[in-house]
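Session log. Operator J.P. requested a structure for one protein chain; no other inputs attached. Running the standard single-chain path with token output.
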Amino acid sequence: MTATIPSYPAVRPPELADRALLQERLSILQPVVSELCFANLVLFRHVHRYTISMVNNSLIIFGCGYDGIPYFLPPLSGERGETACRLLDEGRLLFGADEQFIERYLAGRDYLITPDRDNDDYLYLRREMAALTGSRFHAKKNRINHFAARQNYWVEPYSANHQAAALQLLERWQAGHGDNGSRSFEAEVAANREGLLNASSVGLTGVVVLTDQGVAGFALGSRLNNMTAVCLFEKADPGLEGAAQLVNREFSRYQPVEMLYINRQQDLGHAGLRRAKSSYHPVRMVRKFKVARVS
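Structure written below.
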């Protein structure tokens, strides 16, 4: 006989009114996984069905994966380990636990801890991404030079003035990459669109690359912790060689000097994304784990 998993009252899906609360908790927490930033929680609230709840004295985000499997994210406050164990013992799945969370709260306990390579985040040194010096980045610089030789371009911080043209670029990017109907692809486009429309409200900042023809690329992100910026959205005109490499570099240059790292999120197991993200030589991977009760 299967045990019934207790339900907890959902306060609401994360929304703009929760920004102060969640950013305060995240600022104290100093997370390293890309899921735990306010913009991500709000912009992906629909596809992941995020809801905010209180369990014990802990603030909890419940959600589900692209496969529809329900989970909870690492607790944001209170007795984080005690609350996580309570939820695990009830039969729930913990998603997005980093190595420090595992070592501090779950090491030595009788849980099934599974590496989640497809969701590991790629972490880069900001100064390397901003400079692209050395033979490792020779191909990237060549593509930027190719773009610069053929385009009169300039770079500006993203603002509402760029919104309409950036949305048009997003449509061209979507058409150029082909809508394969996957939930992750559709969710990425929908979240990106909302992010462009509400950038200041959700705390997104970034850059646009402009040419005489309009917006050639944009990148938007936010602060993840005191040393790391997370790039949530990065799009370039698929018809302009070198635009993607240029906007990548310019986003890194735009970050304040105290940002030592750029987190460029996961590859979701997509071979093309894995090759592209690996080609920038991450300084390390932010390992994530799924945790479940042993049956």
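Operator note: The chain has two domains: 16-120+289-293, 121-265.
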